[in-house]
Write a structure and sequence with these properties.
Structural class: alpha+beta
Strand content: 25-35%
Largest sheet: 5 strands, antiparallel
Radius of gyration: 20 Å
Length: 183
């Protein structure tokens, strides 16, 4: 593999480029359905203890940090690689937060931002070797579940990389199951 630091020799490599994984793999004629999904969030000023636990309703949630700040999330928007924030998302998330926590005021909004999640059909990630590429693996397409699925993904990949049986049947996640060569 060649990087901006020069050539790096390796028998095995894992492509884990998040929302950019699909575009990266297209360069070697592998087409997995991995696409960016913008998620917008708000950071709100709360006070410690304002929210006892994580609150989830439909696709929105509130999480309070130990310092009292509250995360209000999130949107899911198929807008390619556009990371801009929108007034509509701000208002939607603000209305949700205010409806759940009456102690919030408009001055509670500290920040709005967005990120890109790696979407995939039915939010099922691709985990495993890439067909036709000896030693090349992928772990991407986890959508909203990347953080929570990271330990299991790492365990599955570790087993596959060391020729051991994964702790679960990894076939549903195998890129070969969903692989499309060429366009």
């Amino acid at each position: 593999m060649e990087s901006n630091q020069g050539f790096i020799a390796s028998d095995k490599a894992i492509v884990t480029a998040g929302a950019w994984t699909g575009k990266l793999l297209e360069q070697i004629d592998i087409h997995l359905q991995i696409y960016p999904v913008r998620g917008q969030m708000l950071l709100l000023q709360g006070s410690p203890g304002m929210l006892d636990s994580m609150l989830m309703q439909d696709n929105h949630y509130l999480v309070q940090r130990q310092d009292g700040l509250i995360l209000a999330g999130s949107t899911s928007e198929n807008v390619q690689f556009d990371k801009s924030v929108t007034p509509l998302a701000r208002q939607t998330l603000w209305n949700f937060a205010r409806d759940q926590l009456s102690g919030l005021t408009s001055s509670s909004i500290i920040r709005q931002w967005s990120g890109l999640r790696p979407g995939s059909p039915e939010s099922v990630p691709y985990i495993g070797p890439l067909p036709g590429w000896n030693g090349l693996y992928v772990a991407a397409g986890h959508f909203r579940y990347g953080l929570t699925n990271a330990p299991a993904t790492a365990e599955i990949l570790t087993c596959l990389l060391t020729d051991k049986a994964p702790p679960i049947d990894a076939t549903p996640y195998a890129p070969a199951t969903h692989y499309q060569k060429g366009t």
